[in-house]
Write a structure and sequence with these properties.
Elements: E1 3-4, E2 14-15, E3 19-24, E4 30-34, H1 39-44, H2 67-79, H3 81-94, H4 102-116, H5 130-143, E5 151-152, E6 155-156, H6 162-180, H7 184-195, H8 204-225, H9 233-251, H10 256-273
Length: about 270
């Protein structure tokens, strides 16, 4: 048993690394519900006891973090401040159960986390301004194509003149840009590859499975945030739990010691079988 104390209005008090829910309010009341963490989380528990931003804890609101969430929060604090704030903010909103729209608002935070997540491995998420590109193409259509000598009575006919030729060149460039721009799937695949800490190339079928899984999480939280999908708190928690595990598997991979323990268990099992 250990306990790390700090300013009650600024920090969660951690006690008993086997507890999954441990929170404290400004009034100093601690809430605990015991559950054993995973092997990996337990090994890193002592190293990852993050300070929760002051804005997350108030006299009326408490932030409940599971062992898994503390681990993810801790590793995010070491890698990217913005992602840490987005994640903790989403968890904070999720705990505002008095807000009738808390699930959609929390989902918005998780959607933002996933959208910006590629930058954790140095990939800048692309946000092409399609609207402005389409507006530029529309301007060329009105100023050049519709003023072409080839255009009469809403029909293009005859040899291509200079104005129509100019528009067609612009349209060609637009569609080449559109086809060549990286998709969200491309970004996710590149992120999965960059996060893979092994020295082996991930088999394409496995890479597709993990990319699809990441896409499913993004689709779920996006649809909930846009009120396009009605969900329950249990369903939301189930998706969030699996997403956190998914991210931790990449951000906090098993250590050499973990593998050594697993090998020892396998060896012991084989000896017992003899």
């Amino acid at each position: 048993m250990y306990m790390a104390r700090a300013n009650l209005a600024n920090r969660i008090i951690w006690s008993n690394p086997g507890s999954i829910y441990q929170t404290i309010s400004d009034h100093g009341k601690i809430h605990c519900a015991s559950r054993s963490p995973t092997l990996q989380q337990e090994k890193h528990q002592k190293a990852i006891m993050p300070t929760v931003p002051k804005s997350v804890v108030s006299a009326k609101n408490q932030l409940e973090l599971s062992s898994q969430q503390r681990a993810l929060y801790g590793v995010l604090t070491q890698k990217d401040e913005e992602l840490t704030q987005i994640y903790s903010g989403a968890l904070y909103v999720f705990n505002q159960k008095q807000n009738p729209d808390y699930l959609a608002l929390a989902a918005h935070g998780i959607r933002e986390l996933l959208e910006k997540f590629p930058k954790i491995v140095g990939i800048t998420p692309q946000k092409p301004d399609i609207s402005s590109k389409c507006q530029q193409l529309a301007d060329k259509w009105e100023k050049h194509a519709l003023r072409s000598e080839c255009y009469n009575n809403e029909i293009f006919a005859g040899a291509i003149d200079e104005k129509l030729h100019h528009f067609l060149d612009v349209a060609k460039g637009f569609f080449e840009w559109f086809r060549g721009r990286p998709s969200r799937r491309d970004e996710r695949t590149e992120t999965i590859r960059a996060l893979d800490m092994t020295s082996f190339t991930m088999p394409p079928p496995i890479e597709r499975i993990r990319t699809n899984e990441l896409a499913e999480y993004a689709n779920y939280f996006t649809s909930v945030s846009h009120h396009a999908h009605t969900t329950s708190e249990d369903d939301f928690v189930a998706h969030l739990n699996q997403l956190e595990r998914f991210l931790l598997d990449f951000l906090l991979p098993r250590t050499f010691e973990d593998h050594a323990e697993i090998d020892a268990l396998i060896q012991a099992g084989e000896e017992d079988a003899k």
